[in-house]
Specification:
- 2 copies of one chain form a homodimer.
- The first copy, chain A, is of the alpha/beta class.
- Chain A has 3 domains: about 15-195, 3-Layer(aba) Sandwich (Rossmann fold); about 205-355, TPP-binding domain (Rossmann fold); about 380-500, 3-Layer(aba) Sandwich (Rossmann fold), CATH 3.40.50.970.
- Chain A contains 20 helices and 19 strands.
- In chain A, the strands form 4 sheets. Chain A has a 7-stranded mixed β-sheet, sandwiched between helices. A 6-stranded parallel β-sheet of chain A has the order 3-2-4-5-7-6, sandwiched between helices. The first copy, chain A, has a 4-stranded parallel β-sheet with strand order 17-16-18-19.
- Chain A starts with a helix and ends in a 13-residue tail after the last helix.
- The interface between A and B is large, with 78 and 79 residues.
């Protein structure tokens, strides 16, 4: 046997396991998260013998899902991968996968399931519900996946795998793959591997796209120089940060960010004005954004916490929205016109560095350090000071709650990455996602990974500190001990015992 | 206002929250498990102000679900109760609830959900999937609940609550209740509370039941004295331990237990012969069970690990099966004929203490302590010795894996309770379920709670040790450190790194 035979992409045949892993390697995946279980052990052998992939070996499946999510957020354009076992493993990851769905993060969930023969004969195996419903977990998973595949036949397996991974990356949503114990080892042709997957979004229909471009240019011209950009979560998830920045630089339009879009535009960019959150924005930001003649929203995700509880004061008649798969101009929706393809063409139509746009003032996004000292560390004291600690290229992870709210007002250095879960808001998520973020940051040469998490949240997922040691990443962790679920005390039950926790 | 007005069961009106809690108190629930979240905080106020209910305040939702499961297993006839919040909370509990479904444990999962108005208008609230699908979590939950209710109207709420709790206990399966933030506080008539819920199984159809009794008696007579009882999981879950023991005592038929039925019959009972697990039974047990002229199986759950991988050598022509909701006599199924009602009538038809049955020998179930000493603690060394440590009324919890397999062969003292998850087999489950089991044991006056768990399994759920401290229970924990996922090494990947863990 020649060496080339062992490299799936060199053609000939390979196992389904190796086919799947090679596809992941092609998309720059380096680490796979998960927990072993008897229905996935055969597959894990292939990961262990791969020279290009590492197995994280998480402490539990929820944490592993969080880690895959954090990895995918930092490693833009790639995806997070999670391997669990049938029933007991995969269902522990449900919340983590649902969070990735909600927040548009591409995560491939591979579940080791009973053999195709067992799936047909349906014996009362361990990890089953005891009633023969072998499709129950799939039915649950369908609620939280953009697409699913239950591999049943080696002839269709490679196409199914390709379809699933492509949808995962293109839509930036989780997908779910059932990998039976027998098919793992089946030999298939590896010919398809010679053609890399196309994970770019589809081309826009040229006729509609031109119409949309004309309409946008017309509105920008009508607004004269008074256009404001508002960048949000999906600009990051759908990988248009570069396109947005080029558009901003060419036009010099002022740029603001929604909370979930923080660091989509470098926060030290001189035309960047800070975070817009409806009525709870800083007054100067609110005034600038809401008084603009035209708002160009890019990758908007208008959830409650991301919009100051739905308090945007910008009429639709003055709004253009660019999304991954559609465009909205005032009241009109243009389905199928996605921003990844549209933005460069729009930039091309703009005059470079318009002086009149440059004349528009942008409030300086700063957070002065208050000088008064106090025995107690307050949020007012803390956040401006940690702002001075951050460096270029840091990854800053903020737990839902006081950490996430506190850090929004801190201007982050250029090239830094802000990671938070503002829509889904599952407490404990950051401990797992920091692990994934740190591995991704190590991969792509980012700087430090810095986590802010409270005493309440860390209790949910604390064991993943162990996997940080195992994988050798060394995030800096700020554990804010404020004696319980403080964000909930603000909402309800300030003195209720249910908001207390045991002080570790 | 008179004091009586504040006691829901005294009539007049009460809030929906108090109605629900009073129903739980009537069923002897004392502790509610869960994690606070903003959609359940209003409801938690009612738990906190109840003098009859305690809030456990778990470290995470999966552990809380495990605890509710462990509580229900030990507190037979009652149920476990779990409170989580919309999306992020409830979905973390999915594996725990599915395990309760699989293993037939009555757990009520109460989820604090957005208000009825929000469920109609479907804003992009935090904890949603961002696409308006407010029913997605319910659809997933339906896979793992015997019944669900989404409360939408105060007029139907009490009947819905009653229906759900009744189904939970009668079927010994989880149920799922969506409790909107606004309905929690709504006033309703408390009149129904004056009538306790009937959680006994329904009466059997007398004509069919008599026919079945005649058939069974006839087969027992034909088998002469040569009848063996095999007791399994559902005898415990459907609360017929007392009925089975009365039948055994009256007939003097030898009794054996499947692994999941361990301690359904006191293991020090002189007609009890030990654990039958198909071909992996002790030879004398295998011989006695398989050579009997008639096998009366009670509450059987024929999963792979519970049957020695489906190796029962007993022809159906020699088998009678009693189940919670049906009876099987050889090849005939009698739907609707449940064992709780049938067993006392069957006992009544038997002659007391038949001498001929007494003449049937039963192998003595013992586990001698080997005398050789060794530097290394082996399983052969350990289990006979821990057997000497157990006392009457202990609750013995064994994690899936070497603990569970090891302890099966240990005869447990009378009145002790064996808790394990042999069908579902989710590692880490015992840490949460020990918490629930210990609270239930304290309630009903059992003795010590003793947990056997491995180093691999405890990593999944370790934080729940904290809740043991919070709630003041003091289980004895044997942590078996065998350097990784040892049960998996036996199955596959003996030296694979994925079966290693970090040594804490």
């Amino acid at each position: 046997m020649q060496v080339a035979d062992q490299i799936p992409s060199a053609g000939k045949t390979c196992t389904i396991a190796d086919y799947l892993l090679e596809r992941l390697v092609q998309l720059k995946v380096t680490e796979i998260f998960g927990v072993p279980g008897d229905f996935n052990l055969g597959f894990l052998d292939y990961i262990e013998s791969s020279s290009k992939l590492e197995w994280a070996g998480n402490c539990n499946e929820l944490n592993a899902a969080y880690a895959a999510d954090g990895y995918a957020r930092v490693k833009e354009g790639s995806l997070g991968v999670l391997v669990t076992t049938f029933g007991v493993g995969e269902l522990s990851a449900t919340n983590g996968i649902a969070g990735a769905f909600s927040e548009r993060v591409p995560v491939l969930h591979i579940v080791g399931v009973p053999s195709t023969a067992q799936q047909k004969s349906k014996p009362m195996l361990h990890h089953t519900l005891g009633d023969g419903r072998y499709d129950a977990y799939l039915k649950a998973a369908e609620q939280f996946a953009i697409s699913t595949a239950s591999l049943q036949d080696k002839s269709t397996a490679p196409a199914e795998i390709d379809r699933l991974i492509t949808e995962c990356v293109v839509t930036a949503r989780p997908v779910y793959l059932m990998l039976p114990t027998d098919l793992v080892h089946e030999q298939i042709s590896s010919k398809r591997l010679l053609t890399p997957l196309n994970v770019e979004p589809p081309e826009n229909d040229p006729e509609i796209e031109n119409f949309v471009l004309d309409e946008i240019v017309k509105l920008i011209e009508e607004a004269d120089r008074d256009v404001v950009l508002l960048v949000d979560a999906c600009a990051i998830r759908h990988n248009v940060k570069k396109e947005v920045f080029e558009f901003a630089e060419r036009t010099h339009f002022p740029v603001y960010s929604a909370p979930m879009g923080k660091t989509a535009i470098p926060e030290d960019y001189d035309r960047y004005g800070g975070i817009y959150v409806g009525t709870i924005s800083r007054p100067e930001i609110k005034e600038k954004v809401e008084s603009a003649k035209l708002l160009l929203s890019i990758g908007g995700l208008k959830s409650d916490f991301n919009t100051g509880n739905f308090t945007y004061q910008i009429p639709t008649t003055r709004t253009i929205e660019l999304h991954s798969d559609h465009t909205r101009i005032r009241f009109a929706a243009y389905h199928g016109i996605g921003m990844k393809r549209l933005l460069p063409k729009l930039t091309h139509r703009m005059q470079p560095f318009r002086e009149d746009a440059k004349a528009l003032t942008v409030p300086k996004f700063t957070l002065p350090v208050p000088q008064e000292d106090n025995e107690t560390i307050s949020h007012l004291w803390l956040w401006p000071r940690v702002g001075q600690f951050f460096k270029k290229g840091d990854v800053i992870v903020a737990e839902t709650g006081t950490s996430s709210f506190g850090i929004l007002d801190v201007p982050l250095p250029g090239g830094s990455v802000f990671v938070s879960q503002i829509l889904w808001g599952s407490i404990g998520w950051t401990v797992g996602s920091t692990l994934g973020a740190a591995i991704a940051a190590r991969d792509i040469g980012l700087n430090r990974v810095i986590l802010f998490v409270g005493d309440g949240s860390i209790q949910l997922t604390v064991q993943e500190l162990s996997t940080m040691m195992r994988t050798g990443v060394k995030p800096i962790i700020f554990l804010l001990n404020n004696s319980g679920y403080t964000i909930e005390r603000y909402l309800h039950g300030e003195k209720a015992r249910y908001n207390d926790i045991i002080n570790w």
